[in-house]
Each structure stands twice: as C-alpha cells, then as structure tokens.
Write the structure tokens for this entry.
Amino acid sequence: QVQLVESGGGLVQPGGSLRLSCAASGSISSILAQGWYRQAPGSQRDLVASITRGGNTKYADSVKGRFTISRDGPKTTVFLQMNSLKPEDTAVYYCFTSISYNDKVQSFWGQGTPVTVSS
C-alpha cells in the first residue's frame, strides 16, 4: 500500500508562481513514474507533467516552458514548480506514482490540491 500526500495549492494571481509537493510513503517498490494530472471543472483529467524512473520528463504543451517537475534525492517526493500561471491553469491537481509490484503496474493518487489562478 502506498500513500501520497500532496500540498502547495492555493490562490494565486495571474503571472504568479506555486510549487506543489507530493510525498510518497508505504510499501514502495520500484517506482516507474511520478507526476501530476489536473482536472478542471467539466473537463477530463489530463496529464500535466511526468518524470520516469530514468529521469525523462514530459509536459503538456500548455505548460511547457512554465512548469518544471523534479524530485528529491530518495525520489520519494516529487515537486512541480509552476511559474507564469494563467487562469487556464485553474484545476485540482492530482499527483500520482506508478510502481512495479509482482509483475504488475500499480498507480496511486494523491488526494488532490486545488489551484486557482485569479485576480
């Protein structure tokens, strides 16, 4: 069992910055990927950023150049630095961690942290 606790969301003005954190604990084996999805009202949950076991990163086109995903040393905490925030970034952000366990891929989700970009 893996638990993810995320934090860092809140209200910010357009052009501002926030940093989200996602800390994993529990029965963590081999981490395959970590990252964030976000879901705006009336929209599907879309991938924002991810980082693989090997350190490869991927970003949604809408956030390229503005968001940066990174990890701590033990790779159990992942961060999403969000700069130049736009109202379109308003959503609930859900972090995830995918692990390999007994030849299976299991994904776990954080509780979600809301980000509101508004003046």
Notes: Residues 76 and 113 are 18 Å apart (CA to CA). The mean pLDDT is 94. DSSP finds no helices and eleven strands in the chain.
